[in-house]
Amino acid sequence: MKYFRCLGVFLDYKHNVITMSNFRVTCVLYDQSPGMEDGVSNVTARVYSHDSLTRRKDWNSSLRRVIKLQNVESAHYAGRSAGYMFWCMDDDGTVFACKEKTSSFTRFHVPYRVHQGSCDQSTFRFVDDDESMFSDSVQVVSLNGDELRVFVQRKLISGETKWVLRESLDLQEATRSLTGHKGCYFNSSTEIITAGKGYVVLAPAEEMWLFSVELSTMRVEREHSRNRIAGEAYSYVLGTRPAVHVCLVSCKKERQGSCRDICKCNK
């Protein structure tokens, strides 16, 4: 992987638990192999697994998948949704995705009515849904002026997919009652600042006045901690303290000497 270029590195976990002893990292990379036509690159995903139980720490080549794409240098990360990571290639709606569990790739086009001619991160994002009824459906948030729209990709009986408008919100009207709102806001455009599971953080172009929208209810708010920083923010939660103790007596598990580390033995 020394000469590959990186499109993104993603931390994954098993059984909804992530620790320093049990985690998985997926690297999405690309390179232009000798003999390939100009502008065409191999995009691949390599997975590093660390599992203390099996003592396995390696790059898993068995999960390697490859897709050939043209002008991948122009691709930009567009978010995560329904177990996929997405990149937009052009403003015509060309998108490719990497599935988190299998590292397999797919390529498709998002209709114009969804992206409105722009797949820039400031106006277009794939966002995970926090509602179980939509967790398996790919969800897209897009901006058209001061209108926020939420689309969901539905699978039809025929096997085809269809993009359905789930919700829309007039941001100028919805934010009038929020503290600090000014009448000049939303006269030009609105930008998506960041996004997370079930929400997006936005700001009017006139000023970095942050607010967020809960996508399940379309509720607008300013008081949440995620609205204090103009960028990606991750909350820290202290985990439950382990039920262990430290001892300096002779070990009762047939080991030699005293316990120098955290001991799980029962006295």
Describe the secondary-structure layout.
Blueprint: E1 5-12, E2 22-31, E3 40-51, E4 56-70, E5 76-81, E6 84-88, E7 94-99, E8 105-109, H1 112-115, E9 124-126, E10 139-144, E11 147-155, E12 161-170, H2 171-174, E13 190-196, E14 199-204, E15 211-214, E16 219-221
Antiparallel strand pairs: 1-2, 2-3, 3-4, 5-6, 6-7, 7-8, 9-10, 10-11, 11-12, 13-14, 14-15, 15-16
Entry keywords:
single chain; 267 residues; mainly beta; 2 helices; 43% strand
In short:
Helices cover 3% and strands 43% of the residues.
Report strand order across the widest sheet.
Answer: 1-2-3-4
Distance between the terminal alpha carbons, to the nearest Å?
Answer: 49 Å
Low-confidence stretches: none
Q: Quickly give the structural class.
A: mainly beta
Tally of individual helices: 2
Per the principal axes of the C-alpha atoms, what is the gross shape? Answer: globular
Rg calculated over all Cα atoms: 23 Å
The domain count comes to 1
Mean pLDDT over the full residue set = 80
**Largest pleated sheet:** 4 strands, antiparallel
Number of strands: 16
Proportion of residues in extended strands: 35-45%
Q: What is the H/E order?
A: EEEEEEEEHEEEEHEEEE
Helicity, as a percent range: under 10%
